[in-house]
Amino acid sequence: MCCGCPRTPPTLSSAACHSDDDRLLNCTGNDSDSGTGNAVTETSAGILHSCEELIPCARARALAKVVELGDDTRPAACAESPWPMIAVVTRDDHGSRRSDIMTTTAAAVATAAAGAAAWQVTTRSSDSPAAVCKMRSSATVTTTVTTVAVRLTAVLLLLMASARPATALGQLQGQYNGPYPEICPSDIYCHGELLDDIQMQQLYADSKTFVDKKLRRSEAEIIKSYRELKLRNNGRVPTRAVLTKFVEENFSDDPLVEWVPPDFVEIPTVSTYVQDQNYKNWILQLNQIWKRLARKVDEDVKVNPDRHSSIYLPNGFFIAGGRFTELYYWDSYWIIRGAILCDMKDTARGIIQNFLYLVHRFGYVPNGSRIYYLMRSQPPLLIQMAASYYTYTDDLDFIKKNIQYLEAEFNFWMTNRTIQVEKAGNTYVMGQYNTHTRGPRPESYYQDKTLAMPYSSLDDKNELYSRLKAAAETGWDFSSKHYNNFGQNTGDLSNTDPQNFIYVELNAILQANAVVLAQFFKLLGNQAKFKYYDDIGQRFQIGINALLWNEEEGIWLDYDLTTKLSRKYFYTSNFAPLWTGSYERKLRTYYGKRALDYLIVNGVINQDGTPKLICVPTSNINSTQQWDYPNCWPPLQAMVIQGLDRTNYKPAQTVAINLAKSWINTNYVGYITSGTMFEKYSALEVGTTGGGGEYTPQTGFGWTNGIVFELFRRWGHLFRST
Description:
The protein is mainly alpha-helical. The chain has 20 helices and 20 strands. GO terms for molecular function: alpha,alpha-trehalase activity.
């Protein structure tokens, strides 16, 4: 029993509707008087004892029952429930997430629609507004919400319904027709006249420079002063000189605080795995780079959050390097693993706690720790970070204390980033990168707005902006991988359309996350949760096998939702299931062999398994985008190299070693000749950085260093400098 709510869909009726657009939500509790009438702006609610269904009206795509329950308000009827309690994701009038979501719940989040005979998924969280009763004692709730949550039992039914027709599928594909909320409430950092004028005047070569600055005065005072300045100029945008002076008077640089991790050691354990003396010296120098990348957020961000684009974080962390002076989501997975191998386990735990703090505050992990990165994420690797930490520390108490936030992160993706895909009469729930917000990306404002200039309508512009943000959420910004030019991966940046594809790497990661959560709950003795997440992992595996594996090509391929076909293009992300183990173990020799054949056919290795190129290029298409040929990216090298190694197929492991040796060599040569580590490398010239994209090549570099440490930990005894 859970909260007295029915486990089966109710009989729907519109008799209680006052108009086509009304929605009713009855919440009964100790103090509730909100059970009838139209949805109102605020409703008080007592502790939940029972709940009734939201009654959808004629034009409503119905959202089902709803609720946020903290452990402190859990009804007695729910005390023995094996399922986590449920969280609501709310937004304010600007569409921004409220900061109090998922604060005390072990969040089970799944957006569902009630149908006459079956549950259907509504995956785009901003498709329909709904009245929500926030069922916490003496709480109030605003009805301008766009995502509500239902029981994990509902999403479990969805995941298990692999043979059910997807009658709602047509609502999930094609151009987005819903509202476009703001990225964040700030009229300076995320939208507004001042941001537009400064960025379009190109006051700085990099759009990110301005939005990383600190406000010297309140936002309201600065905006008032700027409007007065424009009035004195007859409403025209001031000259560059006047704008520059205005920025200097009202903004300042906002650097993070330099910090030395207290558990830093001069000679890390990983160096003992290195036999070559040149490489050993190099490893010790790379270890010193940690101190150059270590930062903490200034306490002023906590005291005066409205004057910074930085989001406060409680612990120190490592920045990626170069222009990237904040915490980034998927970069940090490899940074954390590198830190652990360099004996900084406490620091690694602190970085993970920063991400848990972000989940606690926002209900998900943003792209990075800036407010202009809200409303979009990056490849969801938080659960894998926790798994890496546990593997090296056996700190089960840490997992126990934070499992609710790991669940919350996973369920954010299950709620907001999954869709139903039908193939051969079966329906699969698959992950999809997806975000819908208005306006250009603040950190790339000039580039986005310039790209959108040929579009006539505001909706068309916002649709393009959303597609660009969804591509940024993939971590691959940008690549021909996202291009949709009548089904082909050709064209230019305006053809970017990741919402039209199901990506291999995302679904492999989600499958692996479900497996890790299942194992965590097994360790914690929660058999019901173990079974629940194990089932989800199996459902994802079925979808990966059915939609993404391509027997003809012998590899996993992205899936086109429009053509309903595999995208038969070489991308290193095609190897992601090898890296995550998202395949049947009894077939790993088969998959290892097919992967080698695929590398040979695509000109990456020779018949004898030696590399044809310096490293594995991101694609075989030179689109001028940075996530394409001839660039090689560290996380993608890890996916290919470690993926081949994990097959335990000897020829594949030999190729993994060969590729690792070549990758280590180009990193080493680059460091010896330039004194730095690059964000990406060229497949064509040893020791040189990759190019292309929206910004100049960056150095540092967090994930590059982390993966070097990983490869030396695995094969340091075999590597020899040349």
